[in-house]
Amino acid sequence: MGLIDLLHRWTGGLIGLLLAVLGLSGALLAHKPLLVMLPQVSEAQAQDTASLAAAAERIMAAPDRPRSLVFATRDFGLNQLSYPEAGSGAYATQAGDVVARWDSKWERPEIWLFDLHHHLFNGDTGEIVAGVAGLCGLGFVITGAILWWRMRRAFELRLWPRKFERFQILRHHRDIGIIMAPLLALSLMTGTIMVFRPVADAILGPGAAAAVTEALKAPPPRKAKLADDPDWTGMIETARRLYPTAEVRILSLPRGETGLISLRLRQQQEWLPNGRTTLYFAADTGELVLARDALALAPQVQAYNALYPLHAGKVGGLPYRLVVTLSGLTLTLLGSLTVWTFWFRRKPKRRRRDPVPAT
Predict the structure, then answer these.
(1) What is the pLDDT of residues 267-307, one digit of tens each?
(2) Residue 231: which region, alpha, beta or left (left: phi > 0; alpha: psi -120 to 50)?
(3) What's the pTM?
(4) Which residues of 163-179 are buried (b: 16+ CB within 10 A; e: fewer)?
């Protein structure tokens, strides 16, 4: 038990602040529409084929054509565009009018917050560090529950420490941690699996990681150059013909030498906000190459696709977003106070004894 306590305290002291940053940024990102202070954010979603096709034709015909177009959702009434230049993008109305443009992620709080939460401003390396922090966080939940058990009779539910002193902070840390353990475990587990796909084998069963990799793999590359004026309308009409009730979510130009345009859809049964139902079209002719139905994928793959909605609060509406927010804020509180008590706590002052009067 002493070794567990030592490991829990020292690891928490070393990475507690990192977990606090991940928790706070995640809590804020759960409410992205509030961070984008543009009036068009609250516009109703347009998903009729004519409106989608008109917006795609207008946006993709621009001289500085974006590499991807994410269509508006029920909660976010703007289309989001991404350009080839790193960090550049734009918001456009559902009619195709650009209302905000940025050349750097630092110009938009929701963009740099996303990069902070997912990559710690350091690309793939930062993503790996965040994943390691998530694994450590799962360890904290397990070891914290073990350490709480021996002190369970002293349990007291308080949202804030009774006093801002080390003993009361540690007591609050222990008790609020055990209450929030299931939510913290869910947030940390889903985030870790998305970074380290092999961890899925431990949660979703043997072979899950390999099944996910195979199921999400793009078709073989084609020797096809992107046409000057692709038939965007025809692609959207094809998607609607195959999946009449699905939302059209992301239109992407070919990446590298794939020679394929992709169009992602979200069927009603899918939790993932942008769906995993994907259509691939030849970049030169617009011919349909492959249609992948997300609902026909293996159960392990469908479970994997549900991880991001659970992690980011993209399912269950406002009530579940508030649950995700609470989980993030709890992680922020526990992580920051752990660092404070470990590194910056003040030693208690010794009481000075009054001199004994001479008799």
Answers:
(1) 999 999 999 999 999 999 999 999 999 999 999 999 999 99
(2) beta
(3) 0.88
(4) eeebeebbbbbbbbbbe
